[in-house]
Protein 1
Amino acid sequence: MKLIIHSHHLEVTPSLKIHLEEKLHLIKKHFDQIIQINASLVVDKAQEKELRQSAELSLHVMGKDLFAIAHHEDLYQAIDQAVSKLDKQIIKVKEKVKNHHRPISAKQISANNPGLNL
């Protein structure tokens, strides 16, 4: 897994990088076929204080590109929220891949729906 971190109006500290890597490790537990992750950490001059810091994460897996963005007054919380969104997306992708490789047979369909005649 390749991690690329971009920052805008802030300096990426080692603690911030470690926090991001630890959170992204949780995603890797769910799905290990991740090719690359792009992280953009931004501090804006927004009027609303809670929307000043944002984390944008772009994840590239085989055949899919996933994207999540989160805004918060604390950059660590924004990272946590964006990783949580990506985690939900990666679980859906994993389920689709898992279901695609093991199709449902006609017997399983009729067992689940007794009123259906196949």
Note: The two ends are 45 Å apart (CA to CA).
Protein 2
Amino acid sequence: MSLNITDYFEVMQQRDFLRTNQYRVAALTYKGINLTEQDLVYLRTGDIPSRTIQQVDVPYMGLNFKVPGTAQYQGTMQLSFYCDQPQIIRGIFEQMSFTTFDDDISGGQYTVAGSDILTFRTFNQTSPESTTTAYSLIGIFPTEVGTIQMDTTSNGTVANFQATIAYQYWRKTAGGATSAFG
């Protein structure tokens, strides 16, 4: 069946489009350190994570047949934040980093815990309270707290920094199809 412009327009009106600004990190919990949506209002950018099914070659009579293998998760997410004046958000990520490994004591909390979770959601054009999808990254830990670029010759540009979070896997917790078997 071939779709025409009228069909396209009808589907577009029903589904609309996800806009890149319709994204919020709802909560981040790490080793008793909690960031709420109010703390995370300074988030500029993040990614909806990927998941890849590995392909396995099965040679037979000179041909390589492709069969599905295991799932592979990207494993890291880079978050970009505006810097609040007292640098509270960056300070929290610094605390998370030193909780993971403190070079003063050559130790830290290395254990990856399922309770260490970053949850984010997308929403529709009507309201930021109207979640269309939600994801949870499970077993997170910080891998990098990025620099803050300062420049005395700038016009007052708002400072920002990046933080990188590693995770074990993700689960879709709201919206859309989550599993063919669920």
Note: The first helix runs from residue 5 to 15.
